[in-house]
């Protein structure tokens, strides 16, 4: 997504926009480099909710202040995750999962991609609200969790539509529920956690743009406005985003900042319930 957006922005601005990957420490390495960069409007952070909603509650300290050292530009997209299961499990819906878990506590495992990750927080919140015991099995990355369910190493995981659609359609996994306020148009038969009585189970991830604090207001406004224009392109919007399960949001800087505050409070409760900590 970053590369496609950079290519289109570069064409619109008449100058190259370079994507520099800075992996490490659950987005902290990349965020820190942007926080300490010159606030001249030429450096942008594209990151996920982990940086602003989860990490402040997960880590004892961060090398930057998420509220003071950044300017929110826009939330690009929101991604809801599905709770998926191995097809041989003896349940086909959330009610059946909960009944099985209560009958045999500790007999069901779920995969995540690390302590404090979105699937881990969703799994622990489900355990808390449903009064069940599920065993958390952390893997080293997103790409390993769904294959672990397909292989029968674990029974459950939470996964976005982009990674779960193909095995779902092939019958290699089955979907029990999805996050969000509404069902996905791509999988309208899958109920939401909210309609099943568990609105507190949040599975979402979001992707957004930020600049370092002090960036010129006109640079922030232009990046927001030009991103908005580019993501209105019907083919790009449909094929690269909607068909992959992303909900296009493109919130204003002010609305994005307000959303982050609310999201951080919710994720903070989930981290506390999970007991997750990171060093």
Task: Describe the protein's topology.
Elements: H1 2-13, H2 28-35, E1 45-48, H3 49-58, E2 70-79, E3 81-85, H4 94-103, E4 108-112, H5 118-130, E5 134-138, H6 142-150, E6 156-160, H7 161-169, E7 174-178, E8 205-212, H8 217-230, H9 234-241, E9 246-248, H10 253-274
Parallel strand pairs: 4-5, 4-6
Antiparallel strand pairs: 1-8, 2-8, 2-9, 3-6, 3-7
Helix pairs in contact: 3-10, 5-10
Main traits of this protein?
D-Maltodextrin-Binding Protein, domain 2, globular, 279 residues, four-stranded antiparallel sheet, 10 helices, 9 strands, alpha+beta, 2 domains, 41% helix
Descriptive account of the structure:
The protein has helices spanning 2-13, 28-35, 49-58, 94-103, 118-130, 142-150, 161-169, 217-230, 234-241, 253-274, and strands spanning 45-48, 70-79, 81-85, 108-112, 134-138, 156-160, 174-178, 205-212, 246-248. It is of the alpha+beta class and 279 residues long. It folds into two domains: 2-78 and 204-274, Bordetella uptake gene, domain 1 (D-Maltodextrin-Binding Protein, domain 2, 3-Layer(aba) Sandwich); 81-178, D-Maltodextrin-Binding Protein, domain 2 (3-Layer(aba) Sandwich), CATH 3.40.190.10. It has a five-stranded mixed sheet with strand order 5-4-6-3-7, sandwiched between helices. The protein has a four-stranded antiparallel sheet with strand order 1-8-2-9. Helix 3 (49-58) runs parallel beside helix 10 and helix 5 packs across helix 10 (253-274). The mean pLDDT is 95.
């Amino acid at each position: 997504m970053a590369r496609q957006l950079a290519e289109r922005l570069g064409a619109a601005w008449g100058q190259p926009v370079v994507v520099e990957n800075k992996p490490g420490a659950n987005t902290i390495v990349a965020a820190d480099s942007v926080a300490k960069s010159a606030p001249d409007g030429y450096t942008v952070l594209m990151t996920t909710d982990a940086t602003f909603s989860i990490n402040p509650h997960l880590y004892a300290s961060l090398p930057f202040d998420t509220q003071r050292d950044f300017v929110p530009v826009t939330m690009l997209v929101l991604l809801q995750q599905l709770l998926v299961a191995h097809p041989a499990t003896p349940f086909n819906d959330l009610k059946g999962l909960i009944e099985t878990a209560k009958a045999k506590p500790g007999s069901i495992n779920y995969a995540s991609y690390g302590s404090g990750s979105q699937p881990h927080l969703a799994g622990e919140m489900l355990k808390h609200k449903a009064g069940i015991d599920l065993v958390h099995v952390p893997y080293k990355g997103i790409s390993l969790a769904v294959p672990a369910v397909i292989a029968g190493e674990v029974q459950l995981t939470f996964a976005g539509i982009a990674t779960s659609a193909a095995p779902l359609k092939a019958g290699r996994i089955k979907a029990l529920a999805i996050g969000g306020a509404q069902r996905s148009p791509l999988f309208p038969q899958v109920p939401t956690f909210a309609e099943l009585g568990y609105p507190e189970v949040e599975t979402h991830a979001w992707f957004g743009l930020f600049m370092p604090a002090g960036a010129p207001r006109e640079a922030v406004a232009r990046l927001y406005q030009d991103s908005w224009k580019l993501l209105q392109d019907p083919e790009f919007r449909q094929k690269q985003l909607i068909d992959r399960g992303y909900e296009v949001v493109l919130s204003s800087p002010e609305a994005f900042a307000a959303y982050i505050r609310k999201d951080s409070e919710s994720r903070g409760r989930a981290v506390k319930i999970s007991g997750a900590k990171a060093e």
